[in-house]
Every structure is written in structure tokens, then in C-alpha cells.
Amino acid sequence: xxxxxxxxxxxxxxxxxxxxxxxxxxxxxxxxxxxxxxxxxxxxxxxxxxxxxxxxxxxxxxxxxxxxxxxxxxxxxxxxxxxxxxxxxxxxxxxxxxxxxxxxxxxxxxxxxxxxxxxxxxxxxxxxxxxxxxxxxxxxxxxxxxxxxxxxxxxxxxxxxxxxxxxxxxxxxxxxxxxxxxxxxxxxxxxxxxxxxxxxxxxxxxxxxxxxxxxxxxxxxxxxxxx
Length: 227
Fold this sequence. Notes:
By secondary structure, the chain is of the alpha/beta class. 30% of the residues lie in helices and 14% in strands. The protein has 8 helices and 8 strands; from the N terminus they run E-H-E-H-H-E-H-H-E-E-H-H-E-E-E-H.
């Protein structure tokens, strides 16, 4: 049977300062999407509110905007996907084999406390599916609990955008919290690469996480291998 992957994207367009734009880091979606498409997987987009997923402007500039990003920016059908994402209440988790949380600083605001996304994630995981994230996408896993009330990430090996990378990117003063520390507070066994901005993927059973935008392809490959 054809495998199905649910990509989670943000609806947030700004930092707390409304003059500071943010949004989906597009390559974190496009790199994974193309890998899954090559495997013949079916894919769909969901966001906390449904509808438009704004794009992080910095992710659209050279050298970060590679061929896959440019393809999405010039493809009307792909743009339509980003303009018409589903709401969590429109998603039947039983139809999906994996969930993949994309990043961009935007997700720090609308991913952690969304009950609909938490429900979908819990149901996919407890049915034997794969839960994955890349970069800031792991903020969507911070507060997800299993049916027994325990946190999904407690005692599990994970990675995601590090505080060092926040500082080096010049946005440490703009983000609402330190995601790396919040993961550790929840009992997650956080890991990061020796050097910032290099690819790192951590797989702990059916929980797969990538550290930064450079990790999206490897994260998707690991998810595909598990599927």
C-alpha cells in the first residue's frame, strides 16, 4: 500500500515585533517533499489554523534557496498547496503513516500548544507510525503526550535547532523561548552536531528529528527508510 506523510507547517507570519517577518523555512518542506515523492508516497499539508502558510523571507534568498525552493516558488500548484493547508480537525490520522513537522521560527508560536496537532501526532505514533521533525519543528513535540499521560519526548533522544545556532543567526533576542532548553526540561535527551549548521539526524525508534535546515534531506531519508 502507498505510504502517506502529513507535513505540518506554520500560519505565523511575524515575530512578536510585527515588523519582523518570519514563516515556513521553505527548503525544510521542499527537500523532504521531493524525497517522499521519489518514493511514491502521498503527501498533504496541515497547519494549526488551516489556509495560508507564510514563507520565511530569508529562506527564499541565495544561497539558501536551491533548485527545489525555486521550483516551488514558480509552480502554481505548489503555491496553491501552501495557500490551502488543512486544519487539524479536517485530518483523519488513520490515513497517515508519518507526520513531519517543518520549521522556521514561526512555529515556535503556533506549534507547541495546538491540541489538534498533538492528537494527530499521538494517534499516528501509537498506531505504529513515524513522528518526525526538522529544525524548529521539534517545538511541535514539546507538549505532546501519549495516552498514558507521559510526554512523547521524555527519555527520548532528539535534536533540533540549537541555542548556539539561534545566537549565530542573530535572532536569539527575538525568539519567545530557548527550544533546546525547553526540550531538556521535558526530559528529552537532546543532542547536537559538534559544529553548527551541519546536518545531524537523531533516530530513536519511530521518533526522527533533524537539527537544522541542512538536515531536512537526511531526516526525510530516515523517515522513508522506516516506512
